[in-house]
Write a structure and sequence with these properties.
Helix content is 51%, strand content 11%. It is built from 17 helices and 12 strands. The longest helix is centred in the last third of the chain and has 49 residues.
């Protein structure tokens, strides 16, 4: 048995409006509604709606042999519910086929896994409930933001009850091994780890429309031939990519939608591969070994690490400042404030601050609405400054450590005093009972002693 796992990430960031220094303390709404709605409508018309129609037709055409997996970010679901409900309906129709799996992830498409486990877990559970509510499905597999994964993160995921996780088949974690097998987590082997075949995935996601590419034009038959060549040494081939590849990143005039329509048939007819979802692969395949990932990997850039979001001075300063508010924000019960807190964690804000200008610079520039990383940083920090003011106004400030320790000491002393009061009360009750008993006994003795003895008659 050999399988293809086809997975699509579906995400649209919530972009911030231009927020100036003089807006701090005066304007508490941070989002560029016009741009966000405009881009969502554009991508919906070019990608989501036509591609969803193709996916649904493929499921019906191939009698359920074609299967696919999606991860819809919580940020996207919020926008679809508000501005494109027909797209949400089309994803719900795919869920109803029973051949499409929807994965869980962090609700804010955030780097919460690099903050605290509590925040990470809460966001995952929020997203889990959201896809259950909106799509009617239970998520049993997991895909972290941008495929970020490590041994420790995998252990957290397993302890939340997920059976499989998707991540990048990075060369530096694989070494001589192939991504075309199933692996497991080193700490918790129950979690199955699916590794992305980045060469075959990127042939579609990045190179498809490149006329300078030596393999252009790429047809479904040619691609199926490449898969067939790998069949002898592969158990599973994981093809993970952005869903926006189909019609938005690669425009319709490149033939990408026709390619999507033809690919499943070419694979099913000309290769020994079938299609499975991540959960099905976890149920039907055995891991060949554990895969050690001591430091986080991702599917971004050539480094396949976190440097797309963290690492330079701008990104680190913004991320540290954001995380410094975690404790207080998590205690706050104000819904508007909590919504902004979670939206400010969207990983795209830090992606816009990236200063890579070489091999991956063009990709970063394509997705960046700012003129420079510094502009992105200043805009974000202005928003974060206003948010901090609101947070300190609406929610109580955390106490000074010395004052907090003193308060705890007083509370502890009060507990000791209360315990001693109870002991004194109990001792007094015992003394009273003892006194009453002694008094009763003494009175009885006196009473018996006061009885006159009858004179004894003397006999003659």
């Amino acid at each position: 048995m050999k399988s293809i796992c086809l997975f699509f990430e579906v995400h649209q960031p919530l972009r911030l409006k231009r927020y100036r220094f003089f807006d701090i303390g005066n304007d508490h709404y941070y989002y560029d509604d016009y741009t966000n709605e405009h881009i969502l409508r554009k991508v919906s018309d070019e990608c989501y709606l036509p591609a969803n129609r193709i996916i649904k037709d493929l499921v019906n055409r191939h009698d359920g042999k074609f299967k696919v997996a999606f991860s819809l970010t919580g940020v996207l679901l919020d926008q679809l519910r508000l501005n494109a409900p027909e797209v949400l309906d089309s994803f719900r129709e795919l869920a109803e086929t029973g051949k499409v799996e929807f994965l869980a992830e962090t609700n804010s498409h955030s780097l919460a896994c690099m903050n605290t486990r509590e925040e990470f877990t809460e966001q995952v559970e929020t997203h889990r409930k959201k896809i259950k509510e909106l799509l009617g499905v239970e998520a049993t597999s997991f895909r972290n933001t941008e495929l970020v994964y490590s041994d420790e993160i995998g252990n957290w995921i397993s302890e939340m009850g997920f059976k499989s996780v998707l991540t990048e088949g990075a060369k530096h974690i694989l070494g001589w091994r192939s991504p075309d097998h199933l692996y497991c987590n080193t700490i918790n082997p129950r979690l199955k780890v699916l590794l992305r075949n980045f060469n075959l995935s990127d042939d579609i996601a990045f190179r498809f429309g490149n006329r300078d590419w030596k393999e252009w034009p790429l047809t479904a038959e040619k691609y199926a031939g490449w898969l067939n060549e790998k069949a002898q040494d592969a158990d599973i081939i994981n093809l993970f990519m952005d869903y926006e590849t189909f019609g938005e990143h690669q425009k319709a005039d490149t033939g990408i939608l026709d390619f999507l329509d033809a690919l499943p048939g070419a694979i099913l007819d000309n290769t020994p591969f079938n299609f499975m979802t991540p959960s099905e692969i976890a149920d039907n395949f055995q891991p060949v070994s554990a895969i050690e990932v001591p430091s986080p990997v991702s599917w971004a850039d050539e480094e396949r690490d976190l440097t797309a979001w963290l690492g330079n001075d701008l990104q680190d300063a913004a991320f540290i400042k954001l995380n410094s508010l975690t404790s207080l924000a998590r205690k706050c019960k104000d819904e508007d404030l909590l919504r902004d807190w979670r939206y400010l964690q969207v990983s795209d804000h830090f992606y816009y601050m990236c200063t890579k200008f070489f091999s991956d610079g063009a990709v970063h520039a394509y997705f960046n609405p700012y003129e420079s990383p510094y502009d992105a940083f200043m805009n974000y920090m202005n928003v974060l400054s206003d948010f901090e003011i609101r947070l300190n106004t609406i929610c109580p400030e955390e106490e000074d450590i010395g004052l907090s320790n003193l308060r705890k000491k007083i509370e502890k002393n009060e507990e000791v005093i209360e315990q001693q009061k109870n002991e004194i009360h109990n001792l007094r009750n015992k003394l009273k009972k003892a006194a009453v008993k002694q008094s009763t006994a003494t009175g009885k003795i006196k009473k018996e002693g006061s009885v006159k003895k009858k004179p004894v008659r003397k006999t003659k």
